[in-house]
Amino acid sequence: MQKPVANENEKEVKSVDLIVSKADTEGNITYVNPIFMKISGYKQGELYDMPHSMLRHPDMPKVIFKYLWENIQKGNDVSSYVKNLCKDGSFYWVLATVKMAKNPDGSFRNYMSTRRAISERAKEKISALYKRLLEIEQSSGVEASEQELEKFLQENGVSDVHSFNQLMLEINK
Ligand SMILES: Cc1cc2nc3c(=O)[nH]c(=O)nc-3n(C[C@H](O)[C@H](O)[C@H](O)COP(=O)(O)O)c2cc1C
Question: CATH no. for residue 104?
Fold first, then answer.
């Protein structure tokens, strides 16, 4: 399936909406809830086995997904802001909490993301941060963008993934 071309139309995520999906070890979709389909514009049959990266918006810096994967693979939950691309090229902002679920025997079951609406304040703050990270990524590479993210996190008292998640929740207030 071809990746949509992004446009400037924003889709509203209501405060009651919980947009859920599950994935295999590679990030391929194994489950979505009805709100996921409604907002993203994809039908059930189109979504299964589709990589989550089909939702990746061109405004998203690579380093955010690098941080996400490094942590969820270790079994840490990560809460992160994501601007997602819909099938019709529009976008929506969410605060996504991604975690690994395990089987009773401790083996990998799936990854699950639960996404919810974000405040206008969070949108402004995170858009500005992501814009800066993306500009650095494009001019000087992902490592330089990672350094800029680390600087932002240090300035905000983040020392590990738990304080990272706390900061993200704090920004959404
Ligand atoms: C459970 C789960 C949910 C994900 N949800 C999204 C999402 O909503 N949007 C997105 O762009 N990437 C999401 N990802 C991350 C993608 O797998 C991928 O790393 C990202 O889109 C960047 O893709 P790329 O590295 O191929 O460019 C999710 C990953 C997992 C495991």
Answer: 3.30.450.20
pTM of the shown model: 0.97
Q: Is 172 in the pocket of ligand 1 (CB under 6 A)?
A: no
Rounded CA separation 8/62 (Å): 21
Which residues span the domain enclosing 89? 19-171
40 lines ligand 1 (CB under 6 A): no
Instruction: Give the distance (Å) from ligand 1 centre to CA of residue 136.
Output: 21
For the chain, what is the domain count? 1
CA–centroid distance, 53 to ligand 1, in Å, is 5
pLDDT tens digits along 9-68: 999 999 999 999 999 999 999 999 999 999 999 998 899 889 999 999 999 999 999 999
Would residue 12 count as lying in a domain?
no
3-class SS letters over 80-118: EEEEEECCCCCEEEEEEEEEEEECCCCCEEEEEEEEECC
164 lines ligand 1 (CB under 6 A): no
Indicate which atom in ligand 1 lies nearest the CA of residue 57: 11
